[in-house]
What does this fold into?
Amino acid sequence: MTSPSQANRAYWDDDAANYHAEHPEYLSSFYWCPEMLHEGQAHLLGNVSNSSVLEIGCGSASCTEWLQSRAHFATGFDISRGMLNHAAPGLPLVQADALSLPYATDAFDDAFSAFGAFPFLANLDLALSEVSRVLKPSGRFVLSTNHPMRWIFPDDPTDLSYFDRAYLEQDRDGYLTYAEFHRTIADWFKALQGEGPFLLGDIIEPEWPMDLTTTWGQWSPKRGETFPGTIIFVCRNCR
It folds into this structure.
């Protein structure tokens, strides 16, 4: 039986070239979301000049690359070798699964994920526990992901309920080929703070910029002026 990790690794390996061809501007620097909120503008990680920073689900690591001249040390990992192959040469990257991080306990001052890994993880609690483990106590964790409301307005004709927690694709033989997972606002609160290892400091819902005309699946000017497509959680490690 194909696991979600195996399915998504194969999916992103196959789609890496197409993904980079379709989204060159977004992948050119450290953008938190399709609304093109830049870390240089948002400062969600704060001053990282003396910090070791981990990017979770880095893809081709455009965010990690941007941090190289700003952080004391910045590294990232991704499950997809195909995505990592598109990264700039010389970046300190590894191939790994977010459910089993290959880093020592208390290894990093800060960690973040800009639409990386978390929408594709069936076991959110395990992934967050791993992030908490590798973060130093009181370390900052920032996560941007699909806004829960956006789930019910997909970019294909599939009908999804706000209370559906997964979208799965299978081939003709019944093998899983793609897996994406949804969390409600209540799910996120319980996972991060209610029963989880973090203390929520802020929740951000970026507005769609008036001058941004890009349509990217579920993200577009028409939808963006009506409701948010991204949610960003800013947290502290409470371990």
The chain has a mean pLDDT of 92. Residues 182 and 204 are 18 Å apart (CA to CA). The first helix runs from residue 4 to 22.
